[in-house]
Write a structure and sequence with these properties.
The protein is mostly helical and 367 residues long. Helices cover 83% and strands 0% of the residues. It has helices spanning 21-25, 27-50, 52-77, 82-127, 130-138, 142-155, 157-160, 166-193, 195-203, 208-250, 255-265, 272-287, 289-315, 323-366. The chain is globular and about 85 Å long. The model is unreliable at 8-19 and 160-174 (pLDDT under 50).
């Protein structure tokens, strides 16, 4: 049997139009274009990395806009037109920003200074208690090491600020947080004002034959997504107010600062309340063993009330995120962007679950 070898390329042949024509004709030009593309990709990556804080702030503003949409709809259900409802929500945002600048920031600085001086004093008093030495011996010095570590962390400026050292770094950190928060607030106002127009413009990018179904799925997903975000904010606010009242009643120092931190930490479902309960109990125990027991018991009771009464009523029909997904998302988000990344990772996971439930599963059932 004879094998006929066909030419690989020919004049006017189809193989001349292949992707390797430039490589064969001009290897130098081909390598130059590949190198230029690689340099462009690396430069784009560095540019996005340099703009990561701005991009992250835009995502936070988008999440805040979706989370505030149920509040606008709530005003609409009370007979208010959408324009006036949007104006009311914008005024609320402006009031919150003004309150943060004029009230919250000075109070936080005062609470940090007070807490940094009060906790070491509380530790000194705790060491003089008659039961401390016996418990410390029973735990092989673990209790003494724990209270010493807490005192060092409270007095260390790096605990309060991630930029710089001492008061200068702390001031820059607070200023950066206020500036970022103000920027996110302004972006949220713009996004809320143009929310419907932006959605309609995005829907028009979809092919007309699929636009109706895409719009229907998107509206359902955004509404449930907004309910989830607003529900988590309401639950975190309830936890923060309860923690503030409990800490003030037991006399624990830095109650306002701890309650404010509890608000952001408890935005992470499942593990946020557990973390705040542990921190509050330790600080209350340093203040007084009786206060520690009271705070621990009442917070455990609140956790049960939140799980079986508040969460079902507040979240309603919003999507529920499985516990394993919460832990994985929070760990991944915190590894990439710290606490804000953990807060954003949970809603993203909820959105993915919503897409699977609202789009993927119904299509699988129909097929």
């Amino acid at each position: 049997m004879r094998f006929i070898r066909r030419p690989v390329s020919g004049r006017g042949g189809a193989s001349d139009a292949g992707g390797d024509t430039l490589l064969h004709r001009s290897p130098l030009l081909f390598g130059y274009l590949v190198a230029l593309g690689a340099i462009g990709a690396v430069a784009t990556g560095f540019m996005l990395y340099g703009l990561r804080s701005i991009i992250f702030s835009v995502f936070l503003a988008m999440f805040a806009t979706v989370g505030l949409d149920p509040l606008i709809r709530w005003f609409q259900r009370r007979g208010m037109r959408r324009g006036w409802a949007i104006t009311t929500v914008i005024l609320i945002i402006v009031a919150v920003l003004v309150g943060i600048i004029w009230v919250v920031v000075p109070l936080i600085a005062q609470q940090i200074t007070f807490l940094a001086t009060a906790v070491p004093q509380e530790i000194t008093v705790l060491r003089k208690e008659g039961w401390f030495d016996s418990v410390d011996q029973a735990t092989n010095g673990a209790l003494s090491q724990l209270v010493s570590w807490i005192g060092q962390q409270v007095q260390n400026p790096k605990t309060w600020a991630t930029i710089g050292n001492g008061l200068v770094g702390l001031g820059l950190s607070v200023l950066n947080a206020v500036t970022t928060g103000f920027f996110i607030g302004i972006l949220t106002i713009y996004f809320i004002a143009s929310y419907d127009a932006t959605k309609q413009a995005a829907y028009r990018l979809v092919r007309h034959s699929r636009r109706a179904s895409f719009e229907s799925y998107s509206e359902r997903i955004l509404q449930n997504f907004g309910k989830y975000l607003s529900g988590m904010v309401i639950l975190a606010f309830c936890n923060s107010v309860y923690s503030l009242i409990l800490l003030l009643a037991t006399g624990v120092p830095g109650a306002f600062l701890i309650a404010l931190a509890a608000f952001f930490i408890t935005l992470i479902p499942l593990i946020g309340t557990v973390l705040t309960t542990a921190v509050m109990s330790v600080l209350a125990f340093i203040h007084s063993p009786v206060s520690g027991v009271v705070v621990l018991v009442l917070m455990l009771i609140y956790m049960q009330v939140e799980a079986y009464i508040l969460t079902p009523r507040v979240m309603g029909k919003a999507v529920q995120v499985p516990g394993s997904v919460v832990l994985i998302s929070a760990l991944a988000g915190s590894t990439l962007f710290g606490l804000p990344g953990a807060l954003v990772a949970i809603p993203i996971s909820a959105g993915i679950i919503l897409i699977i439930k609202e789009v993927v599963m119904p299509r699988k059932e129909r097929s």
